[in-house]
Design brief:
The protein is an alpha/beta fold and 345 residues long. The protein is built from 11 helices and 13 strands. The strands form 3 sheets. Strands 1-2-4-3-7-11-8-9 form an 8-stranded mixed β-sheet, with helices on both faces. The two termini are 36 Å apart.
Amino acid sequence: TGNPIFSADAKAAFIRLDKVADGVFLTRDVVSEPANIIHPESLAAVAETLKDLDIEVEVLGEKQMKKLGMGSLLGVGQGSERESKLVVMRWQGSADKNAAPVAFIGKGVTFDSGGISIKPSGGMEDMKWDMAGAGAVIGAMRALAGRKAKVNAIGVVGLVENMPSGTAQRPGDVVTSMSGQTIEVINTDAEGRLVLADALWYTQDRFKPKFMIDLATLTGAIIISLGNEYAGLFASDDTLADRLAAAGKAVGEQLWRLPMGEAYDKQIKSDIADMKNVGGREGGSITAAQFLKRFTNDVAWAHLDIAGMAWAKKDTATCPKGATAFGVRLLDRLVADFYEDKAGK
């Protein structure tokens, strides 16, 4: 147009969105890869490449997690030959380096056979994308650092492979989580919540975040509820829920909030432990969220069940069929609109 103001604005907008696209493409790439290519060690290595963008990256192995008492996460991976990992990514973009960070936590089950509670073989190949939550967190961290977002952000992903073997966790086992709470594992295929339990507790305990948002392909029940149009939104904080929904609407990654409450929480009561990891068929996505809430220690928290949104079976206007990277643009927009320096209150 020849208008220098417009040109500068357009250029700035393009640069920003170009960096967000880098995050989206990274997520699509890792979620699309088969499980012999992307496993806990190789996905941790992908996260480590973010050091090039001035993100601090730490990778905790099984020995370190054992010292921390992460019996819930470690139990999921104990049937696999591949070592479980917890990856911590830290971006310090705020002018105030001591400001409480925003925190994103991802479920990274790089292949989910179901474990001893094994899944039917038909369609099991799709379980390579059971790490889409972790993929989205890694992509979101890349987007934020790439565009130098003025925010302090933490990304934590629990990376495991859920396999049946002679060393695998059994239905009926009781594990002790990092929080000290005990969990009766009724179904080894309800494993994502066991991974997130320790990742959530670790995040709030170490970083004292402003809020925590977890992303997970957590339940088939959410697909029954919402199909492939909305991700399920669960939250302990109404402001956070409203801001997430607004950000999702703005970028076309839509969320639908579902209820939580004491009646649902009672469904995961165990006779022999503090809780069990499944609560029956009724309200399966909600009882999964109730389980996670027990590991948030009253920090403002939201849970996004992206099981119906992480993978597309056909092309859309903005995404070829396959991995969608759902959540990357959503989290970036949430930060940009509400949590960057001078962005909001």
